[in-house]
Design brief:
By secondary structure, the chain is mainly alpha-helical. It is about 80% helix and about 0% strand. The chain is built from 5 helices and no strands. It is elongated, with a radius of gyration of 18 Å.
Amino acid sequence: MKPRSLLDRLVEHQNVVRGIIARAETCLRHPHQRDALTLAKLRWEVARAIGAYTLFKHHELFDPLVAHGTAEQARVAAEAKRACLAMGEQFQAHVRKWSGTPVADHWDEYKPATVAILAKLRAHFDTERQVVASMLVADPQAVRVRRPVAIGAGDRA
């Protein structure tokens, strides 16, 4: 069996989040349901999936390229990581704002805010996939060969 490439794994993580987003958008399209419990559950599912995705791409892609890639790869990876952190903060601000708030009572504000943040996430994923693909096409071995063996292995005394 062929090992999955880093780009394949990135796309798999993105597809998990996209699937949850699609379920949330289905709930949002049915204003008579306004299922606050389901929407809250989906909001936290997205948050958990984004957390796992972020750990993967920072540890296995961006950080190794910043540390060991070419000057151009390091620059692009650092910028991609900054963009990722900024998008993550926007999403977390959305989660903080709407956690514990009765969304059904604030539907006219909640729905467009949620539609907007989900669209931003999808656009960010599209851009991120293109950036990562271009970095890996330039030097497919850059990350795989130079990746540290274990997290924190150099920190042990």
